[in-house]
Write a structure and sequence with these properties.
Length: about 180
């Protein structure tokens, strides 16, 4: 069991563009992913990107619990997923605003506009290329995590900063919504 220290907003690694993983099958990559998963679960996060644990690689792990999935997805969660070198394509112009939080911005939450429908292409740890479509909350999680790979934290995407604040200070309804995404 290894829990990695999570970088917080202000650390330069969170501002840097992460680099492509040249060989997803490398043992170092498997070890990093394993400790990322343990760290994410220990922190009770929905997702985690490698730069958040001070590793500048394009790797994301996430898991959507059943009760966090959108109703239109019939409450279906998404099992633990590992994305190596993910690339996002927006399928249309539809967007929605939802509250997000981030393990690198502890205690805070704010509303972020994200695309509703995306197509993701990535490599598995077995170096298999996979493409799938994601919608709603699932798409939001992936966009949040992939932003980390480009050195972007969600506060920089908030359009209405009056809604950005500490979860404990936000209204009860907002605090509940803020629980939507924590990666
Ligand atoms: Ni995050």
């Amino acid at each position: 069991m290894a829990i990695l220290k999570i970088a917080r907003m202000g650390h330069p690694i969170l501002r840097a563009r992460a680099v492509e993983v040249p060989d997803p099958t490398a043992p170092d990559v498997a070890r990093l992913v394993s400790t990322m998963v343990e760290t994410m679960e220990d922190a009770d996060g929905t997702g985690l990107a490698a730069p958040q644990v001070h590793m500048p690689w394009r790797i994301v792990v996430y898991k959507v619990e059943d009760d966090r999935a959108d109703e239109e997805e019939e409450g279906e969660g998404v099992p633990l997923t590992v994305l190596v070198n993910p690339v996002i394509e927006f399928l249309d112009e539809e967007t929605s605003i939802g509250f997000e939080a981030c393990l690198s911005v502890p205690g805070m939450a704010g509303p972020v506009r994200r695309h509703e429908n995306i197509r993701v292409t990535y490599q598995t740890l077995e170096n298999e290329e996979i493409t799938f479509d994601a919608h709603g909350f699932h798409a939001r999680v992936i966009q949040h995590e992939c932003d980390h790979l480009d050195g972007i934290l969600y506060p920089s995407r908030i359009e209405d900063m009056s809604q950005f604040g500490f979860v404990e200070e936000l209204g009860r309804a907002q605090a509940g919504a803020a629980d939507d995404e924590d990666g």
